[in-house]
């Protein structure tokens, strides 16, 4: 199994054929919404044995769906030499990667992410998994993809909501790893929700995440900073019953994390207000509709065990535990 973080950049999804030239047994797993993209990729890969569409939603991101996918692979006679090629957003790459980690005790997979969120975050780094009783990614495995293929044309026609979700994750990455890229991205966005102009920023965000994962692949230390906004974000998703999408929830969670950072004296006053103004200018809704007590109940189930990623400033993350009293005090 591959243990490196491999990012391949191409201009078109069809160029993935070069990266898979030596494969003899490929099984495409795709989000039903990108069936046309999956078909175009299959057309340039003679080694494709089956094209499998799956329904992708947080409600269907379950062990049952992962097992169903394994059954489809079994029915298609996928051997241990097989490679699963996931085409879609983060839910698709999570489910496909997790299924690949289980099938015959682990087969290889690779990703072609088709959403901004997946290109900058979800499809990179080998975290795979499914939800359990509505709680995010409670079942999963570290299973590194052979590569993640980033193609600008995969983002063509992306709905505005999907763009916003990706923007939140992209800005998160810059907040923890590249203050200059953060400032440049905010300057470019200034209220637009179009993908045009963002593609180079998406690659930069992917590179930052890949660099962090290479240093800490199993999240024993530094990799935890990638969870900025996620402890709150997962709780917001849960409390909303899935009505607030992951990226949108992360954006709201980042502002709450900035408030706590100020309240604990880690960051200078004004950080939360600045980030809020920046995010709003980028077209993001950062208002959280839930109170801290409601969120705290959901956070008790979170696999990060009460740890939060906070900010000493832009580009200066810190991971620490925060008490319930401090959460209430700092988020008033």
Q: Give me the secondary-structure category.
A: alpha/beta
Overall geometry comes to: globular
CATH homologous superfamily grouping of the largest domain: Dehydroquinate synthase-like - alpha domain
- Class of the largest domain, according to the CATH hierarchy? Mainly Alpha
Biggest pleated sheet: 4 strands, parallel
Segments where pLDDT lies below 50 for 5+ residues? none
Q: Kindly state the number of beta strands.
A: 10
- Helical content, roughly? 40-55%
Description:
The chain is α/β, with parallel strands linked by helices and 332 residues long. It folds into two domains: 7-155, Rossmann fold (3-Layer(aba) Sandwich), CATH 3.40.50; 160-330, Dehydroquinate synthase-like, alpha domain (Up-down Bundle), CATH 1.20.1090. The chain has helices at 16-19, 35-43, 63-75, 90-102, 116-122, 160-177, 179-189, 199-215, 230-239, 246-263, 271-281, 292-299, 324-330, and strands spanning 7-9, 26-31, 48-54, 83-88, 108-113, 127-132, 135-142, 148-150, 307-313, 316-321. 49% of the residues are buried.
């Amino acid at each position: 199994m591959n243990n490196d973080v491999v990012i391949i950049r191409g201009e078109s999804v069809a160029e993935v054929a070069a990266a898979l030239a030596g494969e003899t047994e490929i099984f495409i797993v795709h989000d039903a919404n990108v069936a046309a993209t999956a078909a175009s990729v299959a057309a340039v890969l003679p080694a494709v044995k089956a094209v499998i569409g799956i329904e992708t939603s947080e409600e269907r991101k379950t062990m049952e769906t992962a097992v169903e996918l394994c059954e489809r692979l079994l029915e298609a006679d996928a051997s241990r030499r097989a490679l699963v090629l996931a085409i879609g957003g983060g839910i698709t790459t999570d489910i496909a990667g997790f299924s690949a980690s289980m099938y015959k005790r682990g087969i290889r997979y690779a990703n072609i992410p088709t959403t901004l969120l997946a290109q900058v975050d979800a499809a990179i780094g080998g975290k795979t998994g499914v939800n359990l009783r509505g709680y995010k990614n409670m079942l999963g495995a570290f299973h590194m993809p052979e590569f993640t293929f980033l193609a600008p044309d995969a983002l063509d026609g992306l709905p505005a909501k999907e763009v916003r979700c990706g923007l939140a994750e992209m800005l998160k990455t810059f907040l923890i790893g590249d203050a200059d890229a953060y400032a440049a991205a905010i300057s470019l966005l200034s209220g637009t929700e179009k993908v045009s102009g963002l593609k180079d920023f998406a690659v930069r965000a992917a590179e930052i995440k890949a660099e962090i994962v290479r240093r800490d692949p199993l999240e024993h230390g530094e990799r935890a900073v990638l969870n900025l906004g996620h402890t709150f974000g997962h709780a917001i998703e849960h409390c909303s019953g899935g009505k607030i999408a992951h990226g949108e929830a992360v954006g709201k969670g980042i502002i709450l994390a900035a408030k706590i950072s100020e309240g604990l004296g880690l960051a200078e006053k004004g950080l939360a207000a600045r980030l809020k103004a920046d995010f709003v200018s980028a077209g993001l809704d950062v208002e959280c509709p839930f109170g801290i007590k409601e969120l705290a109940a959901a956070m008790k189930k979170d696999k990060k065990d009460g740890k939060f990623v906070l900010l000493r400033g832009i580009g200066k993350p810190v991971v620490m535990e925060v008490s319930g009293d401090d959460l209430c005090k700092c988020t008033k």
